[in-house]
């Protein structure tokens, strides 16, 4: 079924950040309007906006809102900058795993340093430009990731993907779904199998929705169905996104990604990670150093508002897991493809950045 196209994930207008409220998809299209950095942090924490690059872009606009507030409140000197620093910390603490969040905030902070001695008016203007650049670059990078990734696809293929690494998780086009989108444009997509992605169902609610809107053939499966499909020879390749990639290529992504990588390896199916350089954290030596977010037990003891587990049951709900680099056939970035990733190859990517 071909739909109307994926709605915009976020946009900044009249000094407000408008976020497509992804908690309500696919049943309702509604934008959550944020007028302050605290409101942006709450939207990230509550997952109205989610997906590493989209979180980063939102944080950049949250930072901009802090700058606008500082100007409108007439703050000067230390007061001006400490107001922004408080907002930085609030935004940075919203979710721990996606490195794009802190990456975008640091980029905004560096820009602010550059214009430190200018008028508040000028600072606002320049910070607005920087947030817009982070947005535009993310979109452009995803198109490049799509192009590099589709070159790896041989003939008409069946894809498996997990969670949502699409337009909804980014400024637009998507990373893993960018690869799928570009492959579809080249007539290389037979079918995309989308894991429903328990517990928050990003695959069912978002990926299935997005691919249908884009007219890409998609079939929804339960997470536990993936192995059986691989065994039957129905999957040609797996492509997923990433929340944080350590210097050696170990990759944190939505819980269940590691299981898929192990299954893919057993069945000799290529397993690809698609992510921009802003998701790579060179400060972490391996994936063991990645801070994995633990979320509320209620997300798995209930489905929606319906309780499905006995009161008081112990429940573990890590939102992400880490796939060792050895299980990843290649990491697809805007700078090109890193085959069999390791520290040297990943560091080399940054040399011309
Ligand atoms: O908890 P979420 O929905 O923010 O998790 C998102 C993912 O795991 C995505 O795969 C990842 O952020 C990459 S999005 C391009």
Give a quick summary of the entry.
It is built from 11 helices and 16 strands. The chain has 353 residues and is an alpha/beta fold.
Tell me what you see in this structure:
With 353 residues, this protein is an alpha/beta fold. The chain has 2 domains: 10-142, translation initiation factor eif-2b, domain 1 (Four Helix Bundle (Hemerythrin (Met), subunit A), Up-down Bundle), CATH 1.20.120; 147-351, 3-Layer(aba) Sandwich (Rossmann fold). It contains 11 helices and 16 strands. It has helices at 37-45, 52-72, 77-92, 100-114, 120-150, 176-185, 202-213, 226-231, 257-266, 298-301, 343-351, and strands at residues 10-13, 16-20, 31-34, 157-161, 189-195, 218-221, 237-240, 244-246, 251-254, 271-274, 280-281, 302-303, 306-307, 320-323, 330-333, 336-339. The strands form 4 sheets. A 7-stranded mixed β-sheet has the order 6-5-4-7-10-15-16, sandwiched between helices. β4 (157-161), α6 (176-185) and β5 form a beta-alpha-beta unit. α2 runs antiparallel to α3 (77-92), α4 runs antiparallel to α5 and α5 packs across α6. The longest helix is centred in the middle third of the chain and has 31 residues, at 120-150. It is globular. It binds 5-S-methyl-1-O-phosphono-5-thio-D-ribulose. 5-S-methyl-1-O-phosphono-5-thio-D-ribulose (MRU) is lined by residues 50-53, 98, 163, 165, 169-170, 175, 202, 241-243, 253-254, 319.
């Amino acid at each position: 079924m071909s739909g109307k196209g994926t709605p915009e994930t976020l946009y900044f207008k009249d000094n407000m950040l408008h976020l497509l409220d992804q908690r309500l998809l696919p049943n309702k299209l509604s934008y959550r309007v944020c007028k302050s950095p605290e409101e942006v942090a709450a939207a990230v924490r509550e997952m109205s906006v989610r997906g590493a690059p989209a979180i980063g872009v939102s944080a950049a606009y949250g930072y901009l809102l802090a700058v606008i507030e500082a100007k409108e409140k007439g703050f000067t000197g230390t007061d001006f900058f400490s107001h922004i620093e408080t907002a930085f910390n609030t935004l940075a603490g919203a979710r721990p795993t996606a490195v794009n969040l802190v990456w975008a905030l640091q980029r905004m902070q560096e820009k602010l340093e550059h214009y430190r001695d200018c008028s508040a008016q000028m600072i606002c203007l320049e910070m607005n430009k920087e947030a817009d650049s982070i947005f535009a670059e993310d979109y452009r990078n995803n198109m490049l990731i799509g192009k590099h990734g589709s070159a790896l696809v041989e003939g008409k293929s069946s894809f498996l993907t997990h969670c949502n690494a699409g337009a909804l998780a980014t400024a637009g086009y998507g990373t893993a779904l960018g690869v799928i989108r570009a492959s579809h444009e080249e007539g290389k997509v037979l079918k995309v199998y989308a894991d429903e992605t328990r517990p928050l169902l990003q695959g069912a609610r978002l990926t299935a929705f997005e691919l249908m809107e884009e007219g890409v053939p998609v079939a929804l499966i339960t997470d536990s169905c993936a192995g059986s499909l691989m065994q039957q020879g129905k999957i040609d390749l797996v492509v997923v996104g990433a929340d944080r990639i350590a210097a050696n290529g170990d990759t944190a992504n939505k819980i269940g990604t590691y299981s898929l990588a192990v299954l893919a390896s057993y069945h000799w199916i290529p397993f690809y990670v698609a992510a921009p350089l802003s998701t790579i954290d060179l400060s972490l030596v391996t994936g063991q150093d990645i801070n994995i977010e633990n979320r509320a037990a209620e997300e798995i003891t209930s489905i929606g508002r319906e309780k499905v587990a006995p009161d008081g049951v112990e429940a573990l709900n890590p939102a992400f897991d880490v796939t060792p680099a050895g299980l990843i056939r290649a990491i697809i970035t805007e700078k090109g493809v890193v085959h069999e990733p390791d520290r040297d190859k990943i560091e080399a990517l940054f040399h011309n950045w």
